[in-house]
Design a protein that fits this description.
Blueprint (H helix, E strand, L loop, with lengths): L2 E5 H7 L4 H16 L2 H6 L6 E2 L8 E5 L4 E6 L7 E9 H10 E5 L6 E5 H17 L10 H6 L4 H7 L5 H8 L4 H11 L4 H12 L12 H7 L4 E4 L2 H9 L1 H5 L5 H7 L8 E5 L5 H15 L5 E5 L2 H15 L2 H4 L2 E5 H13 L8 H14 L6 H13 L6 H6 L11 H20 L5 H11 L8 E4 L7 H9 L8 E5 L23 E4 L1 E2 L4 H9 L6 E2 L6 E2 L5 E2 L7 E5 L2 H17 L7 E5 L2 H13 L4 E3 L11 E5 L8 E6 L20 H19 L2 E10 L9
Parallel strand pairs: 1-5, 9-13, 9-14, 10-11, 10-12, 12-13, 15-18, 19-24, 20-22, 20-23, 21-22, 23-24
Antiparallel strand pairs: 1-8, 2-3, 3-4, 4-5, 6-7, 16-17
Bound molecules: adenosine-5'-triphosphate.
């Protein structure tokens, strides 16, 4: 009986197939598990046939439906594993299959694939460019060194003509996977020894004796990172019925590279637009760190409790081992701080929330008749005083007010400081603190027993400097201390930091992910326009970040943007839209409605419930399988995803919301930051949609909506 293995490229295509095509795939796969090899070839329905003019004689295609074919690599050396590579339309399948060549890497012994036709066609162009280039990318490495890292003849002669990293990136797409990765590492300045440890040593199977088994099945078994071997019909059924969970298990090359780098000589950072798999990468990094040291204590942290619960569920799936899971603490930074303070002082804390803090500032402003708004005071306290851990008037008078665009003279600063003292005294009287104050206190108090060996941070863009100080204090400075993922385009709390000034240096250990796996290209390109054209400060405060090269391979319907004469009409149209999604078979738990404010969500809930559509508030942390259309404020949409999303109430009054915007005359810089924060909010809400997005308003639409 044959065995079946799947290349990662298969998963990238499978989940996008329509249901009948998926059923066809399952039927074909079942045959591989039921029939002896000779009968497979004879089976009329499967139609396992060779590819005319294929560069790899083992290449075959199978029939899935009249229109779709699967591309398969068939063993010709007496071994019995068939590798399913992808599923595509009839012509694409034959065209692709004819050009590819699978080979076994001499160093890693893994199976790799190259587009041999493209390499041959592009080589003369490379040669022409190389003859005029002042230097070549790999000239300092000898052939012997490159061969020792698994580079074979064809790749070696191409590598010898490559002039720079950009050219390597463009060409790399056609090269065998392990060899391309070796070249990327060398191009980034890693020494051949480091590359050997990073790629070859970690992938090469332990030598079992004097003879090397170079059969196709052995190469398949050796290629864990790119190929899954399926043991039996139950496992196959489980895999094919839950491809969504599989995405968490099979990584794209660019993701695998950052998640499974053996070690970073310090803190590392991964950025990327929405849906590029940063959370997935963070989870895999935890898995990798545990594989390096199963005794390590790891903190995996994120922004909200809801996201922490979802990280826990996914990590459980990924590790599937309770002993390893026990080594990982998953919590928000605020909860970590609360616990550290409670354990050190023996006192429980009930921090006040943002709304209460704002009210308190209003009282302070009124009591001292300060010439600034409560919002200005609250921001000054957070972004200047707490951010720099300022505790005396003298420190404040001398402080740089980074990120603030207004000038405050000495007398004015003294007045602000009086306000701060009043605010702190009032908190003391109430025996209260803010979350950020608790983080600041925890950073000073955290004890050795409360420290971790590694910290992995997801949604890092919204952490405040006080929270970073706590994280810095919670892990000793060492290789692999902090692994940080985030997207500055999704900054919805306007917390800006200079990571370097907080003792976190990610320079030369930063990577960017560019491929979006969540949304269609139509949703992405429309949503990206919401951000406008202002440069975006990067995660660590060292420059700007951009979404250059950010893309999706999925395609679908363009987002629908509607304006209604009244809110009632908008909500009526929303109910119809949701009904049409459920009629098309989208389950209610895969549909979300998001608004800037809860009042509109209340109205939506009332209307949908009256129409017989169940609803659930995201803030009540429903389980993934719970029935009901998800209702969430734009803030609560962070980190989530749904097949269909309706953003409602996107009016000029709600986004931007006046009260959240510092007047330009008071502080032009803060004004710009506040406006950008609101753009980000809309961007976050819209980029949660996987397949369909509608955005509606009644009255004047938000000025941020693209024309
Ligand atoms: N290699 C992959 N192949 C297929 N799907 C993937 C892959 N990596 C991630 N995904 C899927 O893409 C979606 C987005 O991933 P994830 O939530 O990790 O992205 P993110 O970058 O953290 O997003 P955001 O910043 O918007 O929260 C998820 O459904 C995830 O399962």
């Amino acid at each position: 009986m044959a065995q079946l293995a799947f290349a990662n490229s298969f998963w990238e295509t499978y989940d996008r197939l329509e249901k009948p095509v998926k059923a066809g795939v399952r039927k074909a796969m079942a045959k591989f598990q039921q029939l002896p090899i000779a009968e497979l070839y004879a089976d009329k329905g499967l139609h396992l046939e060779s590819v005319h003019n294929a560069r790899d004689p083992r290449m075959r295609t199978i029939r899935i439906t009249d229109f779709w074919r699967g591309v398969v690599l068939a063993p010709d050396d007496g071994s019995d594993i068939f590798l399913l590579i992808n599923v595509s339309s009839h012509d694409d399948a034959y065209d692709w299959a004819a050009k590819q060549l699978f080979t076994v890497n001499t160093a890693t012994r893994g199976l790799e694939v190259r587009n041999v036709v493209a390499i041959e066609q592009l080589t003369p162009t490379l040669a022409a460019a190389a003859s005029e280039a002042p230097e070549l990318l790999f000239e300092k490495h000898s052939d012997t060194v490159l061969r020792g890292l698994g580079i074979d003849d064809q790749v070696l002669s191409a590598a010898r003509m490559i002039t720079g990293e950009k050219q390597l990136d463009a060409f790399g797409h056609f090269l065998p996977e392990d060899q391309f990765e070796v070249l990327q590492y060398l191009a980034e300045g890693f020494s051949p020894d480091d590359v050997y440890h990073e790629i070859v040593a970690s992938r090469r199977p332990a030598d079992s004796g004097s003879t090397v088994d170079d059969s196709l099945s052995m190469a398949i078994v050796n290629t864990h990172s790119r190929i899954t071997l399926v043991s039996g019909p139950e496992e196959l059924e489980e895999i094919l019925s839950k491809p969504f969970a599989l995405w968490r298990v099979y990584l794209h090359r660019s993701q695998r590279r950052v998640a499974y780098r053996r070690s970073y000589n310090g803190s590392a950072q991964v950025t990327g637009g929405p849906g590029t798999g940063k959370t997935v990468v963070a989870l895999h990094r935890v898995k990798h760190l545990l594989s390096q040291n199963p005794e390590a204590r790891i903190l995996l942290t994120t922004f909200t409790n809801a996201l922490a619960s979802s990280l826990w569920e996914n990590l459980q799936r990924l590790l599937d081992d309770d002993r390893l899971l026990d080594r990982v603490e998953i919590t928000t930074v605020d909860s970590l701080a609360n616990r550290a303070v409670r354990e050190s002082t023996g006192k429980g804390l009930a921090p006040i929330n943002d709304v209460e803090e704002r009210q308190l500032w209003r009282r302070v402003v009124n009591k001292l008749t300060l010439p600034w708004s409560e919002q200005f005071m609250m921001q000054e306290y957070r972004h200047v005083i707490l951010a720099q851990d300022i505790s005396t008037e003298a420190q404040y008078l001398a402080a740089k007010r980074r990120g603030r665009g207004s000038q405050l003279r000495g007398e004015q600063r003294k007045l602000v400081w009086r306000g701060v003292e009043e605010f702190l005294a009032e908190l003391d009287r109430r025996n209260n603190k803010t979350h950020l104050q608790i983080c600041a206190q925890a950073a000073d108090l955290i004890s050795d027993e409360q420290r971790f060996d590694h910290i992995v941070v997801d949604e890092a863009q919204d952490l405040h400097p006080a929270q970073w100080r706590l994280l810095r204090a919670a892990v000793p400075t060492a290789p692999d201390d902090l692994f940080i993922t985030g997207d500055p385009h999704q900054r919805i709390y306007d917390n800006r930091v200079s990571l370097r000034s907080l003792g976190i240096n990610v320079i030369s250990r930063s990577s960017r992910l560019r491929l979006n796996y969540r949304s269609t290209a139509e949703i992405l390109s429309w949503s990206t326009k919401l951000l406008g054209s202002e440069p975006v400060e990067d995660l660590g405060g060292d420059g700007s970040d951009s979404l250059a090269g950010y893309r999706s391979l999925l395609s679908g319907r363009r987002p629908q943007v509607m304006t209604y004469p009244s809110e009632n009409e908008e909500v009526t149209a929303l109910a119809e839209q949701i009904r049409s999604w459920t009629d098309q078979g989208v389950p209610t738990n895969e549909i979300a409605v998001s608004a800037r404010f809860n009042v509109l969500l209340d109205k939506v809930a009332e209307r949908l419930n009256a129409d017989g559509l169940p609803t659930v508030r995201v803030k009540n942390r429903p389980r993934a399988e719970d029935n009901g259309v998800r209702l969430a404020t734009m803030h609560a949409m962070k980190g989530l995803e749904f097949r269909c999303v309706a953003v409602v109430g996107a009016t000029a009054k709600a986004v931007p919301f006046d009260k959240d915007i510092t007047p330009e005359e008071l502080d032009p810089q803060q004004h710009r930051n506040d406006l950008f924060k609101q753009r980000c909010l809309l961007f976050v809400a819209c980029t949660r949609a996987r397949e369909e997005l509608t955005v509606s308003s009644s009255g004047t639409p938000s000025p941020f909506l693209p024309a």
